[in-house]
Structures are given as C-alpha cells and as structure tokens.
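TASK: fixed-backbone design
INPUT:
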C-alpha cells in the first residue's frame, strides 16, 4: 500500500496510478465551479476499474450549522466560531443525489448512492476514459 500527499486539484500523475480513492468530508468544500476539475484530476490518477468512495455531511435543519449566505455560483457558506472566539466563513455545499450523479456521469459505472440521517456516500467504479 502506498499513500501520497498532494494538492487535491493537481494530483500527481505518473506511470503508476492508483486503484482506489476515498474522499471523506472533502467534497462539500469544493466550489461548485471546481467539481469537474477536482474529479477530472482524481480520475486521471486512477486506473480504469478503480473504486471511488465520496463521503460527506447532509444538511440537517436542527443539527447542521446554518447557511449564512450563498454566492452567485450557488455555493453556500457557514459561519463557524472556534474555541478561541474567532469566526470563519467556510464554504460548505450540500449536493443533492442528482447533482452527485451528474458530476460523475460519463466516467462512472456501478454508481451507488447511500443516504443516512447525517451523511451521504457515493461509490462508483471508474470506467475507461
């Protein structure tokens, strides 16, 4: 097994590609306009037939931090207060099942979407380019 540290938008591509990928609690922080770029780079680093699992939060009205604003691109933001008292504006999108399926359409096969009370997961196999 090999782990590699890299920029999520510029994953290292070499002759030795990976056979699987997991992104936990990351996808919701990708700007909507950059989803295609992120997934394209991820898929380029994988061999056909690789398994991908994306896991993230669902928005739950009584549990999630409120959405403080939305921008012109449709991204949503939360204001999060840290223990030191500082407040930070955090990009936090909550994609629908349809949006997730559209994001991997044409690249993924054997797509399975799972939803629980607080989380969602999308698992799929990367097809031939």
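OUTPUT:
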């Amino acid at each position: 097994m090999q782990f590699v540290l890299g920029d999520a938008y510029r994953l290292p591509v070499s002759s030795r590609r990976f056979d699987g990928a997991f992104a936990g609690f990351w996808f919701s922080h990708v700007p909507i306009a950059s989803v295609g770029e992120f997934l394209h780079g991820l898929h380029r680093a994988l061999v056909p037939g690789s398994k991908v699992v994306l896991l993230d939060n669902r928005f739950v009205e009584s549990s999630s931090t409120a959405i403080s604003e939305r921008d012109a691109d449709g991204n949503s933001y939360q204001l999060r207060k840290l223990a030191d008292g500082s407040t930070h504006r955090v990009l936090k999108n909550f994609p629908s099942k349809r949006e997730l399926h559209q994001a991997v359409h044409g690249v993924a096969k054997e797509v399975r979407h799972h939803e629980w009370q607080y989380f969602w997961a999308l698992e799929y196999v990367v097809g031939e380019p």
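COMMENT: Strands lie at 18-24, 46-57, 69-70, 76-81, 87-91, 108-115, 119-126.
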